[in-house]
Design brief:
The protein has 269 residues and is mostly helical. The chain has 12 helices and no strands. It comes from Phaeomonas parva.
Length: 269
């Protein structure tokens, strides 16, 4: 059972069976009531209807792991026009990686249906979520993006391209390297977490090594960065991989393998 289910069980242990059944019935009634009110009031989404939607989401996300609540939500959502959820897309996407299987399944089905009708409303927030550092959130977002590709592949590709270009323009390699070096340094010297350091530095190296000077699509600043620091970064990448192999083979800690990269970072600051 999940932590929420265990907590619910602990609270329920102090209640009689009839009390627990009554509480669950109240939750089902509240979900059904909110959904019916939403369905009847969505000809024009007023402040009152929006409040009903937010109240419903609160109950659903908090108690959606209960079978009775999940069943009520599954039935009630079918009565609500998909366009109703356009106003709460951020709240829905914020929960796409919930650990509650029943809630996650229903939520993904709801978003997939909404995406089939209004892909433009989901493509950007899902693209952003697919870049999340949280692996669970990233996988959930990528799964939903794939469902959008089925019927709106061109739109998804264009959104991904625009997103990549915006990131490329907004975050230059000097800044990105400096930030990653700071993070890796804190993890290595502060926590002694060698694996964590590698998880930060190696993907950065691989990203930079994936391009060359003068490659189409690269900015002038990126070309300049590669000319200035490419040789040192290549040496640092080789050292990191050598030490990684040593660690895997012998379980030895990694010495200061990031030193050449740190020098390149200081020169660029």
């Amino acid at each position: 059972p999940s932590p929420r289910e265990r907590a619910y069980s602990a609270r329920g242990a102090a209640l009689s069976n009839s009390d627990v059944a009554s509480m669950r019935q109240l939750l089902v009634t509240s979900c059904s009531g909110f959904l019916k009110a939403i369905a009847l009031g969505t000809k024009r989404v007023s402040a009152t209807v929006m409040q009903d939607i937010l109240n419903f989401l609160t109950v659903w996300f908090r108690y959606g792991h209960l079978p009775e609540v999940a069943s009520a939500v599954r039935v009630g959502v079918q009565q609500v026009a998909p366009e109703t959820w356009l106003g709460v897309v951020p709240q829905l996407i914020a929960r796409i990686h919930t650990s509650e299987t029943a809630t996650r399944t229903l939520l993904h089905a709801l978003l997939a249906d909404l995406g089939a009708r209004h892909p433009q409303a989901l493509v950007y927030p899902l693209t952003v979520a697919s870049r999340s550092p949280s692996e669970d959130r990233k996988r959930a977002a990528e799964s939903l993006v794939q469902s959008l590709r089925v019927h709106s592949g061109k739109l998804v590709e264009q959104a991904m391209l625009v997103g990549e270009q915006l990131i490329q323009v907004a975050v230059i390699w000097h800044e990105e390297c400096h930030e990653k070096l700071e993070d890796a340094s804190k993890i290595y010297f502060g926590e002694g977490n060698v694996v964590g350091m590698l998880d930060i530095l190696l993907p950065l190296h691989e990203k930079i090594r994936g391009v060359g000077v003068g490659v189409t699509g690269r900015t002038a600043m990126e070309d300049q960065f590669l000319r200035l620091y490419g040789e040192e970064l290549e040496k640092a990448y080789g050292l990191l991989n050598r030490y990684k192999s040593t660690m895997s083979a012998h379980g030895l800690p990694i010495p200061h393998a990031a030193a050449p990269k740190a020098r390149a970072g200081r020169r660029g600051s």
